[in-house]
Amino acid sequence: MAVPRPNTVVVSSLREKIYDYLKEAMQLAAEGFVEILPRRGVRVVPLTIERIRDYYEILAALEGTALRNAGLPAFLLVVPQS
Predict the structure, then answer these.
(1) What phi and psi values does residue 79 have, to the nearest 5 degrees?
(2) Residue 26 CB contacts under 8 Å (≥ 6 apart), including other chains
(3) What is the three-state SS of 39-62?
(4) Distance CA 41, CA 27 (A)
(5) What's the confidence (pLDDT) of residue 50?
(6) Is 2 helix (H, G, I), strand (E, B) or coil?
(7) Which pTM was predicted?
(8) How many helices (H) and strands (E) in the chain?
């Protein structure tokens, strides 16, 4: 009895999905959001208060820049408090 050949469309589609997942995991690891554990998988890195504060400072700076680039009045700009 002959063994059926795998559907090449399904195999290539699955290969692309696996590649996309690996690429995304590597990007998240490079950004410090996850930690890749060899032969064990991927672990989400816990957020600290300092990292959360850093993210909000970056977000405030980006929003301020976006408002300035949009030409809105300066009184609408929010200055982050430390």
Answers:
(1) -100, 120
(2) 36
(3) CCEEEECCCCHHHHHHHHHHHHHH
(4) 15
(5) 93
(6) coil
(7) 0.50
(8) 2, 2
Residue-level pLDDT at 67: 77
Q: What is the pLDDT of residues 10-21, one digit of tens each?
A: 677 788 888 888
Provide the token pair at 68: 């300035």
What are the residue ranges in the chain where pLDDT is below 70? 1-10, 72-82
C-alpha to C-alpha distances, 71 to 35, 36, 58, 64, nearest whole angstrom: 41, 43, 20, 11
Query: In sequence order, what are the beta bridge partners of 41?
Result: 37
Domain coordinates in residue numbering, the chain: 8-70
Residue 56 tokens, joined: 């909000």
Rg of the chain over all Cα atoms, to the nearest angstrom: 22
Q: Residue 73 corresponds to which amino acid?
A: P
Residue 37, SS3 per DSSP: strand
